[in-house]
Fold:
Amino acid sequence: MDFKQLEAFVYVVKLKSFSKAAQRIYLTQPTISAHINSLEKELDTKLIERGTKYVYPTKPGSILYQYAVKMLNLRDDACCSVKNYNKELKGSLTICASTVPSQYILPKIISAFREEYPNVTFNIQRQDSEQVVESISKGLADIGFCGTDTHSPECVFESFTEDHLVIITPNNERFRQIQSGGGMKADFLKKEPIIVREEGSGTRKEMEHFLNKAGIDLGELKIVAQFNDPDSIKHSVSQGMGISIISKAAVEDYENFGLLLSFDLSGISMDRNLYVVSHKSNPLSFVGEVFLNFVKAFYDK
Structure:
């Protein structure tokens, strides 16, 4: 058993594909298959279930995967610790992030991080908050970012910054008159067509929480559409389809161009925490630790 075999095995499990694993670590698909076959012969057990449309680890494969990730991380730690004396931090990180962090938070963080560590690369996967936590729980990504704490027993959630949710409406005379009066009352939401994020979204979960605090059940609203990204919601609201509740960070562009108005919910503070998520028992690689500490320091300035 050697590191090349373990690396091939880990990427096949992570990416659920022999061909994608080959592309990621710059090997041919037959070489990836040969590495997996060698491991299975050495351990005398089947590690990967293969089909025309699926690839997933067997139970012994899942056990090996957890150890393999730790072994590869330990190898990277050793290399990075030595190279760090020359300030040459190198490596790659797989990041999974929900919509708001991936679009409006991570680009700033990663740009600043790479000014200091230009040899670190990132593979960023956009998922909803529940999928982010699942990916971290299964060891399919190094670090996650999401908009809600699901209290998963396998994960550590650390708040690193705050986000503010707002009610958005079309920019027309009717809503401009309401805006001049301050925040929007909760009962008004019951009368308007509402556009919401998909189930599993951190924004959706936090929206429901704030509405409950205002005495409104989601079933009382007239939901006309559901989207899995804020851009579709912003465009739909600007075209008069309805109103919505999304992150303030996501609507600043539309507000600046006069396409939308935003409101606070009267009497309710719709502030939420954004979280960085890591696995409770799988240690991060040296590069992962450096990046995680950088994220925390970035918002402590």
Notes: Residues 1-86 form a domain with the Arc Repressor Mutant, subunit A fold (CATH 1.10.10.10).
